[in-house]
Amino acid sequence: MVDILAAVTQPVSQERMVWLKGVRSVVVKVGTNVLSDANDQLDDQRIAHLASQLHGIVASGRKVVLVSSGAIGAGMSLLGLKTRPKDLPHLQAAAATGQAHLIETYDRHFRRFGFHAAQLLLTANDFKNRSRYLNVRNTLLTLGEYNTIPIVNENDTVSTQEIKLGDNDRLAAMVANLIPADLLIVLSVVDGLLTGDPSSPESRRIPIVERFDEDLLSLVGASKSSRGTGGMRSKLESVRTATAVGTHVVIAHGKCDGVIESILEGKDVGTFFAAEQQAIPAWKRWIGFTLPPKGRLQLDAGARNAVEHLGRSLLAIGVVGVEGDFEKGEVVSLVDSEGEEFARGLVNYDAVSARAVAGKKREEMAKILGEIPYDEVIHRDNLVVTSIPTGQA
């Protein structure tokens, strides 16, 4: 194996050591490009090395979950496809063929260390439905009691646009929120977040991002990876999701030998994104950072301040606009006058009723609806601030 870690690793960072202290659960996401060789086939030696590193995490007393791409790429090779299919049936056929081969390869290498691969194939519905969400969480936690390493992937064999998660960067962040994990390691074929185009000799790796700034997205384009579905923009959006709920994230080069060990030892490898706040309760992680909003409520300045800074519930009088078609109990975004989201919550009224009572006082609501089933449009217990706190961007 080529040892390129020395070229991108600096001595131990004391800042990282402080942040990594107490890490007990880790989610590792590995991309298709990391797992593929020059011939677009599964790199058996790379998977063997990854298995050794995952065993090292377990041996250190930590829990680990692997989110692995590579099924479609592996299936393409087995089916003799030269380019990634564009139509859904052929993509699903490649996924169905490749997933079996991918898991068999992992399991074969895990067994060298006395472990087995445990496969979980998920769709967006497994995260939207609260009962299924908890079932997935309980399965992952229970697997941690045995000599298994859970391997999570999107169920590409059945996923359609309606139930598709998008890419495994997003899936990894959602799994990290689900467990919850203290650390998310994203292994790609770049050294981390760079100051410019990776092909430019002037681009430099950014070692640490202490607070996520939306301007970071301006450093990257919207391009996707050559074999997979994600790109650096996708990774940064997933970083935002994970760090917002108290999970540290590292993006690093997955083809560097010993990269995971170096990360956990606090060495300056890749880009370290520090968690922005203390971990929030599982219920609010599910509301704010897992479910896709079904609509939007536009608030006036006073209502935004009450929700975002004073910890208040949302009352109808503070709502100035309602968008979308949603039912009672579904997630909606709370936006300001510019349309910028700053919170999400489970709404107590459907879209028709919400439009009827928007901007109204309690006594007016009673006349319109005949009764007031809820004083709040969204109760504080079912509301999560998603914006970057003022002064921390």
Automatic annotation (TrEMBL):
Gene3D superfamilies: Acetylglutamate kinase-like, PUA domain. ATP binds at residues 29, 229-235. GO terms for biological process: L-proline biosynthetic process. It is an enzyme of class 2 (transferase). InterPro entries: AceGlu_kinase-like_sf, Asp/Glu/Uridylate_kinase, G5K_ProB, Glu/AcGlu_kinase, Glu_5kinase, Glu_5kinase/COase_Synthase, PUA, PUA-like_sf. It comes from the Bacteria. It is found in: Cytoplasm. Substrate binds at residues 69, 156, 168. Its EC number is 2.7.2.11. Keywords: Amino-acid biosynthesis, ATP-binding, Cytoplasm, Kinase, Nucleotide-binding, Proline biosynthesis, Transferase. Residues 295-369 form the PUA domain. The keyword Amino-acid biosynthesis applies. It catalyses: L-glutamate + ATP = L-glutamyl 5-phosphate + ADP. GO terms for molecular function: ATP binding; glutamate 5-kinase activity; RNA binding. Pathway: Amino-acid biosynthesis; L-proline biosynthesis; L-glutamate 5-semialdehyde from L-glutamate: step 1/2. Its main location: cytoplasm. Pfam families: AA_kinase (PF00696), PUA (PF01472). One of its GO terms (cellular component) is cytosol. Catalyzes the transfer of a phosphate group to glutamate to form L-glutamate 5-phosphate. Belongs to the glutamate 5-kinase family. NCBIfam families: proB. This is Glutamate 5-kinase. It comes from Planctopirus limnophila (strain ATCC 43296 / DSM 3776 / IFAM 1008 / Mu 290) (Planctomyces limnophilus). The gene is proB.
